[in-house]
Design a protein that fits this description.
By secondary structure, the protein is an all-alpha fold. The protein is built from nine helices and no strands. It is 74% helix and 0% strand.
């Protein structure tokens, strides 16, 4: 209750047009693990074209930390679509997007995102290695998942090992 009153007081003191203050408040809320409040502040800050890219990047990171991959992809994509961004931001966002896609086994999308990052900065982190590994994986037959292996073992067990 005390914190709710604090947030109300802060909201009353900060103009909607003060994107720096909303961005800073979003960072503070994120650090306090008040992620819904942080997202709201970053969305407000993103109304300023100068902060749109970084704000949606932060929203993407929050969603990624929460395991909300689709929301992270949407936020990173909005950050990449921002009119004002520098090559460094575009590289980092493309790389992060590649990581999200890779984490949910969307290899083709991950490869494309890593390739976008590499086009801007071929020496960025381990992007060249990621491209190499994903490119190799694209030419291989689809990998069997743990579920496929379990199903085969279960079928073998039921059939007495005669499959």
């Amino acid at each position: 209750e005390v914190f709710a009153k604090f947030k109300e007081g802060v909201a009353a003191q900060i103009s909607v047009d003060d994107s720096q203050a909303h961005y800073d408040l979003g960072v503070a809320y994120k650090e306090m693990m008040l992620v819904d409040d942080a997202i709201r502040e970053f969305e407000t800050a993103a109304r300023d074209p100068n902060r749109e890219c970084i704000s949606f990047s932060m929203i993407g990171m929050i969603h990624l930390e929460r395991g909300h991959h689709d929301d992270a992809i949407a936020a990173f994509t909005r950050a990449l679509d921002a009119q004002q961004k520098d090559p460094e931001q575009k590289t980092a966002l493309s790389y992060e997007l590649g990581g999200v896609y890779e984490g949910i086994h969307m290899r083709r999308e991950a490869l494309a995102a890593y390739q976008r990052a590499s086009t801007i900065n071929p020496n960025y982190r381990d992007v060249a290695q990621k491209i190499r590994l994903l490119s190799k994986g694209e030419s291989k037959a689809p990998q069997k998942s743990a579920d496929d292996e379990f199903d085969k073992a279960f079928d073998d067990l039921l059939s007495g090992g005669k499959s």
